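Let's practice the habit of predicting before peeking. Look at the sequence and jot down your guess about where helices and strands might fall. Then scroll down.
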Amino acid sequence: MAKPLNMIVCGSLVPDPLQTLEPVQTPQGPGLKNEQMLPSVLDPWAACALYEAANLAKLRPGSKVTLVAVGPKAKLQQLMMTVAQKAPFQLVAVNAPAGGFTDAQETATELAKAIKAMPDLDLPSTLLFGGCASASRDAGVTLQFVAEMLGITEFFMGVDELKLADDDSFTVLERIEGGKYLSSTCAGFPVAVGWATGSLPEPPNNPQTGMMNMRGIMPALMKAPVANVGIGGISYEKAEVPSAKRATVVKKDMAVDDIAREIVEWIKG
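Done guessing? Here is the structure:
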């Protein structure tokens, strides 16, 4: 009989990408204008990882999903009101800054520390999940840092599918160049998986799931340790919104080859 799974998902909040994000200089380094007032969402790639973990948990009764998040406690609490309704999970929170300019290694250090402090951690049978990228600062290395700090050597990035067998062997489809997949098979755990978008839709809100989750989320937030996560040794000379340029030309009755030629000349110019 297949045994329950222990899945740990690393993910945190990011400013809602539908908002206008304007970088500014602060005494602590670069930041976003009115950052504390911006609404937050769960990082989209981390959300995919959470939904995949919840889906796998349904296939193995007794499995546990734990979301480990680094972020300001007040904003995490606000975010959890929505995320808690999506899927059953436990929360491990770290009260620290989270944003587009925080150092990936410092963030990974706090994540790894929080995971190691989990009382019922069974690392040899753990699936460590996270996003392959981030809507905040796409360093693309945070999850790999966490895996290395935990001693997990099997690592897959840009995964869209993970199929488990009853003997705990599994097959992953990992994105590679040319729109193709690399299929890999492993005999067992532990493993770290950086999820791409996968194939699952966003789960609908379930108030009952939310109320059940919040019973554990609120105490977890209350005892969230304070951590000092900053920009590390990174030096930013300037941060600004990319300039937009629009040049519109309206012409009629042009051949396709002529249109393509003009576009190429415009790009070269």
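How did you do? The two ends are 65 Å apart (CA to CA).
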